[in-house]
TrEMBL record:
GO terms for cellular component: tRNA methyltransferase complex. It catalyses: guanosine(46) in tRNA + S-adenosyl-L-methionine = N(7)-methylguanosine(46) in tRNA + S-adenosyl-L-homocysteine. SUPFAM superfamilies: S-adenosyl-L-methionine-dependent methyltransferases (SSF53335). Substrate binds at residues 145, 177, 214-217. This is tRNA (guanine-N(7)-)-methyltransferase. It comes from Marinomonas piezotolerans. The keyword Zinc does not apply. The gene is trmB. S-adenosyl-L-methionine binds at residues 66, 91, 118, 141. Catalyzes the formation of N(7)-methylguanine at position 46 (m7G46) in tRNA. The keyword Transferase applies. GO terms for molecular function: tRNA (guanine(46)-N7)-methyltransferase activity. Belongs to the class I-like SAM-binding methyltransferase superfamily. TrmB family.
């Protein structure tokens, strides 16, 4: 019997151009110990296939997906501040995954899990379709050079894959500190006919209270750097 978690089309699932580079992927001895000690509690394996959120967290809740959480401090803060929500982070950088799990354990969190794998494959093969409340993409690699723009993760196919993950009324929240990338995000998202800009067509969104102000962002503000948030609702 086929359920409603229909696999994505091969065109969306297929990944030929990487939008990331794994930098410093080698873990220190301490990071490896943290990874090994906490994976059984917080880790999700791509080989598990498509999961059910209720099985993973043992309850029904609003589920937030974040891709590229770095070292995890911001995502941990959100999980602490909203214990009623459940969070799944996806990151290809093993030291960041190790750090997030260590912080989660120190905080005694039960509402967070993590994949250490390519997000495109996780979204296609592992996440339930049409069920997540929020999808977060904060400060992705902007790929500054024009010849590398095709590597930017925010592209029309990616926007549609995010839409497949979200439930009706769910939100796709992006943020970047690189204005040309903000303009690119806006251009891509405004062209989608199944999203609505929460700030109004063609506008950026003020930083919502639930997105923590990172140290990186605070440092940028002191240097006069801008940050652009974009928030789109699935129709």
């Amino acid at each position: 019997m086929q359920d409603d978690q229909t696999p994505l089309t091969p065109e969306i699932k297929k990944r030929t151009i990487r939008s990331f580079v794994v930098r410093g992927g080698r873990m220190t001895e301490g990071q490896q110990k943290a990874y090994d000690a906490n994976w059984a509690v917080y880790g999700l394996d791509v080989n598990q296939g498509r999961i059910a959120y209720e099985d993973v967290f043992g309850r029904q809740s609003d589920v937030v997906i974040e891709v590229g959480f770095g070292m995890g401090a911001s995502l941990i803060e959100m999980a602490k501040n909203a214990p009623e929500n459940d969070y799944i982070g996806i990151e290809v950088h093993p030291p960041g995954v190790a750090k997030l799990m260590m912080l989660a354990k120190e905080a005694g969190l039960t509402n967070i899990r993590v994949y250490c794998h390519d997000a495109i494959e996780i979204m296609a093969d592992c996440l339930p379709q049409g069920q997540a409340t929020t999808f977060q993409l904060f400060f992705p690699d902007p790929w500054h050079k024009k010849k590398h723009n095709k590597r930017r993760i925010v592209q029309p196919l990616f926007a549609q894959q995010v839409r497949n993950i979200l439930k009706s009324g769910g939100q796709f929240h992006m943020a970047t500190d690189w204005e040309p990338y903000a303009e690119h995000m806006l251009e891509v998202m405004e062209a989608q006919d199944n999203y609505e800009n929460a700030a109004g067509k063609g506008h950026y969104h003020p930083r919502p209270d639930w997105r923590p102000l990172t140290k990186f962002e605070q440092r940028g503000e002191k240097l006069g750097h801008g940050v652009w948030d974009l928030l789109y609702t699935k129709l």
